[in-house]
Design goal:
The complex is a heterodimer. In chain A, 38% of the residues lie in helices and 17% in strands. Chain A is α/β, with parallel strands linked by helices. By secondary structure, chain B is mainly beta. Chain B has two domains: 44 residues, no CATH class; 83 residues, OB fold (Dihydrolipoamide Acetyltransferase, E2P), CATH 2.40.50. In chain B, 10% of the residues lie in helices and 38% in strands. Chain B is built from two helices and eight strands, in the order αββββαββββ. The longest helix of chain B is centred in the N-terminal third of the chain and has 9 residues. The interface between A and B is medium-sized, with 37 and 33 residues.
Chain lengths: 421, 138
């Protein structure tokens, strides 16, 4: 059953690109956006003239604070040679470019524009960890900060509530981390494109060459249990439960559905979009789900007429390992309290029945916050078009993919559903 | 008593006077801690202050090894982590607070649902003085 909301006309994705996410001392965010833009242009099968782009929507969270420069819309518009076309910045903390995507969809659906560039950019690594922590805390509630909560701390607390309610443990979070690394190993754009096993072997080789004691980890979980290798950040969140500090950019080209085939042999159609807002940690009725994600999901499913089981593959906002488990439950892929079991059974692996975060997720692909939302779209673009290389999921007739973003501690959540026809 | 606006400044002032105060909607009775100028249940705007008894139980927690600058200044670090938690008050509302008197190096021993009582932590002197809301096992 379709809900009461609908798009005025269809919108399609005809190009998608991203920079490699990572920590760069020699590249600034403008340069990274230029890389993403070039790659996006190269993915438009029949090509476009950038002069035909009607407007830019750009997601960015912290450049004012980290780069001491605001007003990034026109800066990027000028960089790409798009002036005097309008450029608008969107801010939704870690979901900033998911909002840019949504605004772009509305702008085309309303028939105001035919072709819109949406993307995101963030530059974080040139600041020290203390400054980054302070900057990101701008997205938390002031009460949480005063009580000593950090971002890992908020998600740590959510994890303890989830553990107590459903009987899960740290061991289950490790399954998420191991899977993310296994996927990222196959993604050359990932910040950490290595498996946990690769990291263990590197450490063992290093210890051998130095002549020191050689670690004797039996498997990945033993490595992750080792407090020396995987120190606690905010219990139960350890280093390998947390996404890194990253620089990066990503962008996607949207056009009116009726024009899609003029540009692309294989466009993706925007069939569902949803967005919700949520309360601070203290005001949540239940700490084990995000009301904003559930609302966004309901909106997107109603608009698309699709059900959770119809979504074959998804990128979700795993800023922390526990978040991935909550999201796959909130999106209806698994029942509340059963997400951790699904991960344990391997259902969310690349070769599972519901592959999640084939890119390696925020944990391993990296999380340049403003670039993450459209970065997730880039992965779904590749998978649905069969262009994901070594990490291509083996699902036959892969048609429906989704991306879910979360800003702050659940204040802004979105779900986008894309279809290949 | 003077009528204080239902906002964060008033809330913090009360905390500095060792009081945990919330707002109660005069129309529907909904309780908010910290206070709200608009009731999120009925959208009423007539509020009254109510003081919490200061008893509750632990709903969620974390043991923070890498804290913000003001906690590092108090001497907390990787070797000396601290506990932050979500506390469900007897009155039904939840608050976020520091949790004292619990060993943050033994998180496995911390029990969700543990009974807690309120404590106000006074830090700094004169103009730099602040009061933090905290709870400890009762």
């Amino acid at each position: 059953m379709r809900g009461r909301r609908k798009l005025g006309r269809g919108v399609a994705v005809v190009g998608a690109g991203m920079s490699k996410f990572g920590m760069y001392s020699d590249k600034d965010s403008k340069y990274l956006f230029a890389e993403a833009f070039h790659e996006m242009l190269s993915t438009v099968d029949k090509g476009i003239d950038p002069k035909d782009i009607d407007a830019l929507y750009l997601g960015n969270f912290t450049n004012d604070f980290f780069v001491h420069q605001g007003h990034w819309g026109p800066i990027i518009s000028d960089l790409l040679g798009l002036t005097p076309k309008p450029a608008t910045r969107t801010e939704g903390a870690c979901a900033s470019s998911a909002l840019a995507f949504r605004e772009g969809v509305f702008a085309i659906a309303s028939e105001f524009y035919d072709m819109v560039l949406v993307g995101g950019v963030e530059e974080m690594s040139k600041r020290n960890t203390e400054e980054v922590t302070q900057g990101l805390a701008m997205a938390a509630s002031p009460y949480e900060v005063r009580a000593g909560f950090t971002f890992p701390g908020v998600f740590g607390a959510i994890a303890t509530a989830y553990f107590a309610k459903y009987g899960a443990s740290r061991e289950h979070l490790m399954n998420v981390t191991i899977k993310s690394h296994n996927n990222a190993r196959l993604n050359p754009k990932a910040q950490f494109n290595v498996s946990i096993r690769d990291i263990m072997n590197q450490r063992i080789e290093k210890a051998k060459s130095k002549g020191g004691p050689v670690p004797a980890w039996k498997d990945e979980k033993e490595f992750l249990r080792d407090a020396g290798a995987n120190p606690v950040v905010a219990w139960p969140m350890h280093l390998y439960d947390c996404c890194p500090i990253s620089d990066g950019a990503s962008c996607v080209l949207l056009v009116a559905e009726k024009m899609a085939k003029n540009f692309s042999d294989n466009p993706l159609y925007v069939v569902g979009i949803g967005q919700g807002s949520g309360k601070g940690l203290h005001a949540k009725e239940d700490l084990t789900y995000f009301e904003a994600t559930r609302y966004a999901a309901k909106e997107a499913y109603e608009l698309s007429g699709l059900k959770p089981k119809d979504v074959q593959i998804a990128e979700v906002h795993d800023c922390f390992s526990i978040a991935e488990i909550l999201h796959i439950e909130d999106l209806g892929f698994f029942k509340p309290g059963e997400g951790y079991k699904a991960v344990e059974e391997g259902l969310t692996r690349l070769d599972g029945s519901k592959p999640i975060n084939t890119s390696g997720g925020l944990k391993c692909k990296g999380h340049p916050v403003g670039a993450t939302g459209t970065g997730q779209i880039v992965e779904i673009w590749k998978q649905l078009r069969g262009e994901a290389g070594e990490r291509q999921v083996p699902i036959k007739n892969l048609r429906i993919g989704a991306t879910q973003s979360l800003g702050g501690t659940g204040g802004t959540c979105t779900l986008t559903i894309l279809e290949r026809r | 008593m003077e009528v204080r606006p239902f906002n964060d400044i008033s809330y913090e002032r009360f905390v500095s006077e060792d009081k945990l105060m919330g707002s109660k909607c005069r129309k529907c009775g909904a309780l908010s801690v910290p206070p709200r100028p608009i009731c999120i249940k009925c959208h009423g705007s007539e509020m009254e202050w109510v003081e919490m008894k200061g008893k509750g139980k632990l709903a969620a927690f974390t043991c923070v090894a890498i804290g913000p600058p003001f906690m590092i200044k108090e001497g907390y670090d990787r070797k000396h982590p601290y506990v932050s938690g979500v506390v469900e008050l007897e009155e039904g509302a939840k608050v976020v607070a520091r949790i004292e008197g619990i060993d943050a190096t033994k998180p496995e021993a911390i029990r969700i649902g543990a009974p807690l009582k309120i404590e106000f932590l006074h830090r700094g002197e004169g103009e730099n003085s602040t009061t933090f809301l905290a709870f400890r096992p009762s």
